[in-house]
Design brief:
Largest sheet: 4 strands, antiparallel
Helix content: 25-40%
Oligomer: single chain
Number of helices: 8
Order of helices and strands: EEHHEEHHHHEEHHEEEE
Number of strands: 10
Strand content: 15-25%
Structural class: alpha/beta
């Protein structure tokens, strides 16, 4: 007879804290199930490990990309600040040149140091560990000053009107006489204080009816770019194209209406009188480039061959300059930052009238 006690074996399972008696024939199946479960868990652990490693790699790459972007941004900011300081140094250097020139007399010509600022720019690399500046000084008194087109009472200044019409009528701008007159009338209407349209000009009613409406200013120009708001002045006319120059190179919003004949460009010289053609303008330029010729009197142009019978109103001419535009560009490799400002020189003192960082 089988002893019933030997038929069972006590099995203690700590995880359940229970004493369970299992038949002997079930022991092998019980442990084989446990081994299979452990093997399945090993596969799951491998998958989880791969997923975690992939996540860590992705986060690391993202962090690396973010850090590199921040590093480049910080470097660009540093270089931008450095270039801005270099450009400002060039601007201050140009101010010093103009200040020194003021002490040499009241006659301004293109023979003077300020007109050859490139020489100063050439040695600027020795002033900095990295970078250099390139400066240019333009005489705004050698340009046509459009704010003088209108008198204080709102009427045309006839002398300035003739000057501007001759200038815009130059073949280089390819405008017919009617277009020239309409643009000049529109410029007058932009400046004068009333809302009465001048012939074929444009006043508030025209600008308010545009697709993107804006008011007519009825006040002097503050910045030359305002001309782009005036009826008839296109970007091609203002900035120029590959084939044609832009009018912005020959106009200014500063000045009392007198043009420095010693520094004016040939296109401006031709606008001074109907009698001055392209050849005479080139002869004037050649005459003033000769250092043996005296330019201290605004009537020196009459000594140029062929100019003896030409008469230019005294109210249009001067031999000294009050307004200058300084452009200073900081350069470092392929990077650059430009500073541009307008300076008034009066009684030996300099005053910055406008300032722009590009």
């Amino acid at each position: 007879m089988v002893n019933p006690v030997r038929k069972y074996k006590r099995d203690f399972r700590p995880h359940s804290n229970l004493l369970v008696f299992l038949p002997r024939y079930k022991w092998r199946g019980f442990f084989s199930d446990r081994v299979k479960l452990l093997r399945d868990n090993r596969g799951m652990a491998l998958i989880l490990t791969i997923l975690i490693i992939s996540l860590i790699v992705a986060l690391t790459l993202q962090f690396n990309t973010s850090m590199r972007s921040n590093l480049h941004a910080a470097a660009n900011l540093r270089d931008g600040i450095k270039l801005g300081c270099i450009a400002r140094s060039g601007f201050n250097g140009a101010l010093a040149v103009l200040y020194e020139d003021a002490s040499s007399g009241n006659v301004d010509t293109l023979r003077e140091t300020w007109a050859h600022a490139g020489i100063i720019s050439g040695s600027s690399a020795y002033l900095f560990d990295e970078g250099r500046f390139l400066i240019e000084i333009a005489d705004l008194s050698g340009r046509i000053q459009i704010n003088q087109l209108v008198e204080q009472n709102g009427n045309y200044n006839d002398t300035q009107k003739g000057l501007l019409m001759r200038f815009l009528g130059s073949p280089e701008f390819d405008l017919d006489p009617e277009e020239v007159k309409n643009i000049v009338d529109a410029i007058k209407d932009w400046i004068d204080p009333d809302n009465d349209m001048t012939d074929f000009g444009a006043e508030d009613s025209y600008y308010r009816a545009l697709e993107t409406p804006y008011p007519c200013k009825n006040a002097p120009f503050e910045f030359l770019e305002e001309l782009l708001l005036v009826r008839g002045v296109t970007k091609e006319l203002f900035y120029g194209t590959e084939e044609r120059p832009g009018i912005s190179l020959y106009l200014s919003t500063y000045g009392d209406g007198k043009i420095n004949i010693n520094t004016a460009a040939p296109l401006v010289l031709r606008a001074l009188s109907d009698q001055i053609d392209e050849d005479l303008a080139e002869d004037i330029v050649a005459y003033r480039e000769d250092e043996d010729n005296d330019l201290s009197d605004s009537t020196w142009y009459k000594r140029v061959p062929g100019m003896g019978d030409v008469s230019i109103p005294d109210s249009l001419l001067t031999i000294s300059s009050k307004y200058f535009e300084i452009t200073s560009e900081g350069l470092k490799g392929s990077m650059s930052k430009r500073t541009k400002g307008v300076v008034e020189r009066k009684e030996g003192k300099l005053q910055v009238l406008s300032w722009k960082v590009e």
